[in-house]
Amino acid sequence: MSVLPELPSSDVDCDICIIGTGPVGIAFALECERHGLSVLALDAGSTREPWYRRREKAEIRNPSLHAPIHVTTRSAFGGTSWAWSGDCAQFDDTDFQIREHVPNSGWPLSHRDIEPFYTRTAKILNCRVDAPVPDDKSWTGLEAVSADNLVWLSTNRQLAPAYWQHFARSKAITLCLNSTAIMLDMGAEGDRVEGVVVESRGRRHTIRAPRIVIAAGGLRTTQLMLATQRRWPNLFGGEHGPLGRYYMGHLTGWLSTIVFDDRGDADHFRIRLIDDVKFVRRRLTIPGSVQAAEQLLNIAFWPTNPAFYDPSHSDGTLSMAFLVMAVPVLGHLMAGPVRRAAVGPYSNRIPDHFRNILSAPISTAVGTARALFNWSQSTRDAAGSLSRQTEFRAYSLQYHAESAPRRESKVILGDTVDHLGLPNLKIDLRFEDADAESVVRAHDVLDRALRKAGKGRLEYWEPPQDRLKKVKEQALDGYHQMGTTRMGNSPKDSVVDRNCRVHGVSNLYVASSSVFPTGGHANPTLLAASLAVRLADHLAELVHGKVTQ
After folding, report:
1. Best CA proximity match to 245, nearest among 57, 412, 423, 60
2. For strand 195-200 and strand 180-185, is the pairing parallel, antiparallel, or unpaired?
3. pLDDT tens digits, residue range 329-379?
4. Which of 75, 84, 91, 406 could be cross-linked to 95 through a Cys-Cys bond (beta carbons 3.0 to 4.6 Å apart)?
5. Where would I find the H helices in 384-463?
6. pLDDT at 292 over 80
7. Which residues contact 180 (CB under 8 A, 6 or more apart)?
C-alpha cells in the first residue's frame, strides 16, 4: 500500500514531492503517474474532511468581505473538493489578454495554451466538457450578450472517495497524511529547495526531492512561501515584492429578477442531463469586445429559483419557502446566499403568500416534502426543485463577477503562530467601488439586450441610487483564492513564470489558483487543475530529458 499514516523515518525516493492533495494536487499526481514519474504527496490532514477545525485561524481585516479560513480551506485528502460545488467552467480568451481598463491584467500565456488540457482535466474532476450540447436556436441573435456560456457539473465532486483506492494501490504515488509542510529549506544560496521541513505527529522531518510542487490551496501555499521568505528575505521578490499581493476573489449575489417574455425561454438555462450522466447548464455572459467598449470586468449571470418573495407566482410551495426563509430563526439555518435570493426585496404581501398555500394545500405539502428531500440529499438540482420545469416567467438572477487585481489587496504573516508554529495569516481582501460599479453597469447592458431582442427584462430590487451599495453589501469571498503567487514574466511583479516555476528557484513550482493574474467570471477549479496537468506534462519532459529548464 502506498498510503502512509505519517512520514517514514527515512526519505522516500521520488521524482517530485507535491505538497497538498486537493483537486489540483490530485490531478497533478495522477498525471505524473501517467507519465511514469514517482510522486511523494504530502497532506496536512487525514483521509476525510475533519469536522473539527477550530485551530484553523487567520486575522481578517474585514470579516464582511472574507469568510473565516476554517470555512474556506480543508486540510484533508481531497482538500476543498469536500465543499466544492462541482462547477467546471472554462475561462474566456479575453481573461488572458492585457485589457486597458483592467489594471495589472494580462497573462504570460494565452488561452490557446490551456485549452488542450481542459478535456483531460475535466475527466479527472468527474465531468465532461467535450460532450455536445443541443443547440437552442431561440436564443441566437442577442446583441452585446451571449446566452451559451457552459458550466459542466461534476457527477462526483468529492474527489477523496473517488480516488482513495487508486492512491492506496498506486506504485508510483506515495501519499503521506498528517504531514504539514512548515518551511522550505533554501540552503545557502537560496536558489534551490534543498528540503521540505515537515511536521508529522510531533516529529519534524526534512524531505528531499529533486523537484517540489506546492499545491496546498491559494492561502496555504502563500502562507508556506511567506514563512520561508521570513528566513530568506530576498526570495520571491523580497519583502515588498509581489508575494501575497494582488489577492482576488469574486463578487456574487443578486440584484434583480429576470422576467422572460416567453415562459419557455427559461428552459434554456435549466440544468440539463446529457447522455444520462453529464450535467450542464448555460449562463449569460458579455463578450470581451463589449466589455472593452463598456469598460466592464468579466461577469456571468444565470437564473436561479423563481422569485419566492413575489406571491404573483401563485405557487404554494414557493410561498412556503419564502415564509420559512423570511423568519429569522428558521431562515438563518439556510446558506446566506440562498436566503438572500429567496427573501429578495422583502414586502408586506404576507397574506398573499398564505392565500397561495391555502388554495392548494395538497400540492404545497407534496412540493415542500420533495424539495426538503432533495435539499437533504444534496441532489444536483435541489435549489431548482421548487420550480416545476418552465412554469414561471420570473426568476432571481444571480451574478458571478470578476474583481480587478490590486497590490493593496494582500495576505501577509501575523505575529501569532498556529499549533505547529507556522505564522498565522493576516488577510486584507479588498473589493473597490470600481468592481461593484462594473456589476451594476453589466446588469444594465444585459437588460437592454434582453429588451431589444424581445426576450425579457430585468426588474431591479433596489432603486438606481442603492444598487452599488447592494452589490457591496453582498460581496464576500475567500473561497476562490487567486493572485497571491501570480504568474508573469518578471520577478518584479510576479512570483512564477508561464510554466508555474518560481522565479529564481530552479526546482520549485506552484500549482494553485493563486498563480492567476486575473480571475475572470468562472469558478477557478477547472483552470487551476488544468494548469497542474500542463505542469505535469512539462515536468515529465524535463525528467525524461526532452526539454531543458
Report:
1. 412
2. antiparallel
3. 454 445 455 555 566 665 667 888 889 889 988 888 887 887 776 555 444
4. 91
5. 433-453
6. yes
7. 42, 44, 198, 199, 200, 420, 422
Residue 14 sits in a domain whose CATH number is 3.50.50.60
Asked whether residue 436 is domain-assigned, the answer is: yes
What is the DSSP code (8-state) at residue 343? H
Alpha helices in 197-243 (DSSP H): 218-231
Say how many CA atoms lie within 13 Å of 325 toward its Cβ: 23
330 and 279 part of one domain: yes
Three-state secondary-structure class, residue 360:
coil
Whether residue 433 has pLDDT greater than 80? yes
Note down the domain range covering 219: 3-84+158-249+480-543
Tell whether 42 is covered by a domain. Answer: yes
**If you search the block for the grid coordinates 476525510, which residue do you land on?**
48
**Contact call for residues 71 and 147 (beta carbons, < 8 A):** no
How far apart CA 375 and CA 381 sit, in angstroms, is: 9
Residues β-bridged to residue 417: 423
d(CA 199, CA 177): 11
pLDDT digits (tens, 9 = 90+) for 225-254: 999 999 999 999 999 999 999 999 999 999
Residue 23 is inside which H or E element, if any? helix 23-34
Q: What is the 3-state secondary structure (H, E, C) of 129-159?
A: CCCCCCCCHHHCCCCCCEEEEEEEECCCCCH
Residue with cell 521520488: 14
Contacts of 451 (CB under 8 A, 6+ apart): 457
115 lies in some domain: no
pTM of the model: 0.90
Q: Are 179 and 42 in contact (CB under 8 A)?
A: yes
DSSP character for 482?
Answer: B
Q: Which grid cell is 389? A: 420545469
419's CB contacts (< 8 A; 6+ apart) are 55
